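Much of what follows relies on a compact textual record of a protein's fold. A record is reproduced here so that you can trace the correspondence yourselves:
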Amino acid sequence: MKRNSYREERKGSMMNLRSKIRSWRLLSSVLAVVLVVGLAPGMAFADDAATINFSPSVTPNNGVIYSKDTVIVKVMVVLPGVEGATVAVENFYTGETESYSGVHVARVVNLEIGSGVAEGEEKKFDGGITVAVTPDNGSYDTVTETYSPSIVIDKKAPTVSIPAGAFVGGANTTVSVPVSDNSALDESSVTAKVDDTSLPASLSGDTVSVDMSGVDDGVYILMVSIKDRAGNEASVKESVTVEKTAPEITITPNSAAARQEPAENPTTYYYEDNGPEAISIDITDASAIQSPSITVNGVEKKVSNTVSEANKFSGVITPEFDADGKCEVVVAVSDTYANTANPVTKTFVVETSTPEPAEAATLTFDLGGGTLDGKTGSITIEANVGDKINLPGAPTKDGYTFKCWKGSEYAAGAEYTVEGNHAFTAEWEKNAEPSQPDSKSDTAKSAIPATGDDAGMLMVPISIVAGISLVVLIGSAVRRRAA
């Protein structure tokens, strides 16, 4: 009896132990589900229905999953209690269907998409995953969820290339790097370096722009890297020249000017009578120079380069002066790296000496009551300062003799240098009056004809008067006889 009682007691203990093991197993399953649910973002227990969640191994980007490896989508089904249910999974990406019956508490299903894509290929998967949970006893309605982002398995890297001969110069401060990819590029992955120094770089469309404005002149190795959204990376290295210095222009006349303005770095040269016979034009640069533009008084001139170096120019032009004696030379040039020098202008002016305009002067001659060439009062002569003239001749005046032109004293007709306006006055000297007879003896003497040449001259009119008187007397006598 005791042995049977022991056996029964032992049998009961074993059954109790098995029951406890089952309880622990069930509790462990519940705890496992709780832990999984707690670790899965966005998952929560449903109050009265099943919950379905999808967790992809790669986060979608604008509704598309890009990956260079197989994508795994974890399907998590959590039931509201211990009641059993059937979980049906349809994978439209691959065309596979799975069904799980008798599910209790939770179910995790991992689905692979894109496992058959080879290296260097790209394949897009469309369709989706649909999961339906149907309770065994119908305590809640069937729960259905669908997950359908496009999945791109991309195992082909982008292409990126830096153009040969790329440079930075002039207004160009960036290097443009063409890039392309079958799917999509990750703009946040762009990097650019010069000698391990990072440079600003950005992606726009199919071009990466690298800002090299802060890099000094020189030749560098530029490295650019970029990834696509699947994580495939491509990079390239290429030599790039940075040349931001413009050419220097010098214009030099072959003869010194009388003066130049301003005194330092003059722009205008002044010459007296003759300008320079030749003007030299010299250009230097760190790189090759393009053909310069040279104009003289606005006319383009072709000037030969007398040096063979690509980074130098030396030529000579013959100046051409316009009607105003001006020759304006303008030189502009760029180098092969698009650096343009500021145009240099030099003006050469020939100043021809011209006499100063003559200064007019008026000379006035007061006749002082006399007459000159029928004119009285005063006469004037117009002349220029510095002229040499002859003063007027001597005027006449009754009872007076002309002495000089006073102011200062100049003889009539004298040579005179005009110094300005001047007034002259005739200087006169009164003539002496004739003496009067004082006695009768002088009167009697004057009545007696004088001898000599003057007496003969006096006898001629006396003889004529006597002859006429004789003729008259004879005529009277003849008339009386006839009577």
